[in-house]
């Protein structure tokens, strides 16, 4: 069996929400695969240009389906504000729910708020609390960018996507692909069974007992911020500076306005 003759056309003109579908549907023609490669490269380039000068980030993961009257929305709101006050840029997937709450908290606290959004058939419109938003076609590009610019990860209650993001970060840290950045899990009543399962994995020898130290679980914003300060700012020698690096507009780079000292 051969790929459909119009696969190359689809790889170029298909709507963004079908990009992952086309990429993962199996072997296509050489031209189609090359066109997909170019679209992936364009996604990464778009992300690099938009995010290179936003400063060190803390990425907040969580459900897009949580409403503003949910206690977890309020927790994410407070956490976003606290992260911004610590000097970091708050980064999320740019959508509603927990992502909106964290971006809103940062924005209302006078901090920097950015999002890596993606085209989906539902639940992923950009929230209005973003200073900068990059809209991507590919899930794996988005996930890579959410990790690339971050010195810590905060995991709020969420679904399958949040689990994917949590274990992606843990796997990269465990295998030495990124540094031992702090991973803070908030909502211990929600995540309790998952944490117990991870502990069982260690008991049965499927992970090292030391891997349990990769996760810090708490419901306290103060404890979470203290952990990020100790394991990110102090461990990696981050410091406040008056001026961030200068972008080159002729390369398509975008600077980030600042009203005060930043961490770098």
Portion of residues within helices: 40-55%
Q: What is the domain total for the residues? A: 2
Distance between the termini: 53 Å
User: What's the number of helices?
Assistant: 9
Shape assignment:
globular
**Name of the CATH class of the largest domain:** Alpha Beta
Q: Uncertain spans, ≥5 residues at pLDDT below 50?
A: 259-264
CATH fold-level label of the largest domain: Rossmann fold
Q: How is the biggest beta sheet arranged? A: 7 strands, parallel
What's the rounded overall pLDDT mean?
89
CATH-level-2 architecture of the largest domain = 3-Layer(aba) Sandwich
How would you characterize this protein structure?
The chain has 264 residues and is α/β, with parallel strands linked by helices. It has two domains: 7-46, no CATH class; 55-239, Rossmann fold. Helices cover 44% and strands 14% of the residues. It is built from nine helices and nine strands. It has helices at 7-13, 19-24, 30-51, 71-86, 98-108, 139-148, 160-174, 188-203, 221-234, and strands at residues 57-61, 89-92, 113-118, 132-136, 150-155, 183-186, 215-218, 240-241, 262-263. The strands form two sheets. A seven-stranded parallel sheet has the order 4-3-2-1-5-6-7, sandwiched between helices. Helix 8 (188-203) links the parallel strand 6 (183-186) and strand 7. Helix 1 packs parallel to helix 3 (30-51), helix 4 packs across helix 5 (98-108) and helix 4 runs parallel beside helix 9 (221-234). The relative contact order is 0.14. The model is unreliable at 259-264 (pLDDT under 50).
